[in-house]
Amino acid sequence: MQPFILAGRAILFRLLRLLMTITIESFVYQKSFKISPKQGVKYAIIIDLFAEVFGAIVFTSLQTFFPFNTARHLIIYLTLDDFQKFAPDVIVLTLFYFLLFLLVKWIGLLFLDMFVFDNDNSVSDQATSTSNLERSTQWGNQFKIVTKAHTISYTVTLLFVLLKIRVFYF
Amino acid sequence: MDFKKNMDRAKMMISPAVPPRFVHWKTLLLFSIVIWILSFFALDGGEDFIAGVGWILITISIGWATSLPPFIIGKLPLSPWVIATFISLLIYQLTEDTDPTLALKAWPLIAAVFIAVMEGFKSRSPENSPPLLSRTSLVTIILIHVLLSCWIELYILLVQQMENNPELNPSITRPRSAFLQPASSLLHAKNHNFLKLDEQF
């Protein structure tokens, strides 16, 4: 298969995973923060886009610094989703990406809370949601909700990746 | 009689291109065309600069035109994306030899900057022109553009890496028959080409 087709497919799968993550997390945020479905989707979109941008920047900068073999594993695992051997670095990368994305999503939620929704009271349902969010403004509580949403979405996307490997590579 | 008829025809043809007032996008368009024609007669070394000025004027002119109806879709004018395209073409011309992909990567970022600037100006005087987007929508649109730029970068990086290192390409590293084998047999295959790569490098 041509490299440009493989690379295009990798990007399309990232888009699919992003859409899946947004769908799952919006549902969790909606239930946990007791906000409207529309508001849940808005939360999930901003948090996940923020995390995805951060992840892409980290990936492109890391692969230039890593030695060739590790960079190769990084590319195979993170973009082509083509890990056939559960090497230690694959497990470390999975854990690293899980924790990194969790941290970024939590920062994203704090950023949303402080800079976006606080100044955005033009629409009535947003004002309502801000007051709903204020009920759970303690960082610990927010972190718990983000962890829950992220764990569920990450597990589902990992299962999706395993299914994808089964369908496309075997 | 014929002369008068021809004059009327010429007027009819020219009238759409004539700006209704001096401060208008059509004035800038005419200026840019004049500057472009002048660049052919410029002395050595000066033609690139004059043509560049003409390109900047045409960018402003077209950007201005696309910020007016009928180039407004929903509430958003098309001007940020059109201006970003024109600026990217200029960047491509300047960096074609050194980094040909830079213009493509820069396009979404330039568009995002223009959207943010446009909204910033509107939010300064909300009584004259209310902001088109809520803060949430603005942040979402900017993040989508940044992500698009990151994904273009990622795509180019992946293609380059796979072209330079063919062993990254799964369809090359694995024999065709591997596609017909069950997953379990491949996971435990000790003599598989792909698994052997680690030992080779």
Rounded to the nearest angstrom, the radius of gyration of chain A is 18 Å
Largest sheet of chain A: none
Within the largest sheet of chain B, what's the order of strands? 1-2
Q: Quaternary arrangement of the chains shown?
A: heterodimer
What's the helix-strand series of chain A?
Answer: HHHHHH
Number of helices of chain B: 9
Task: Describe the structure concisely for a colleague.
Chain A is mainly alpha-helical. Chain A contains 6 helices and no strands. Chain B has 201 residues and is an all-alpha fold.
Write up this protein.
The complex is a heterodimer of chains A (170) and B (201). With 170 residues, chain A is mainly α. Chain A has one domain (3-169). Chain A has 6 helices and no strands. The radius of gyration of chain A is 18 Å and the shape is globular. The two termini of chain A are 15 Å apart. The model of chain A is unreliable at 121-128 (pLDDT under 50). Chain B has helices at 2-14, 25-40, 46-65, 79-95, 102-124, 135-164, 170-173, 183-187, 193-200, and strands at residues 72-73, 76-77. In chain B, strand 1 and strand 2 form a beta hairpin. Chain B starts with a helix and ends with a helix. In chain B, strands 1-2 form a two-stranded antiparallel ribbon. Chain B is extended. Chain B has 9 helices and 2 strands, in the order H-H-H-E-E-H-H-H-H-H-H. Chain A binds chain B through residues 1, 3-4, 6-8, 10-11, 14-15, 42, 45-46, 49-50, 52-53, 56-57, 59-60, 63, 68-69, 72, 75-76, 79-80, 82, 84-85, 87, 116-117, 119-120, 122-123, 126, 165-166, 169-170, and chain B through 134-136, 139-140, 143-144, 146-147, 150-151, 153-155, 157-159, 161-163, 165, 167-171, 174, 178-179, 181-183, 186-187, 194-195, 198, 201.
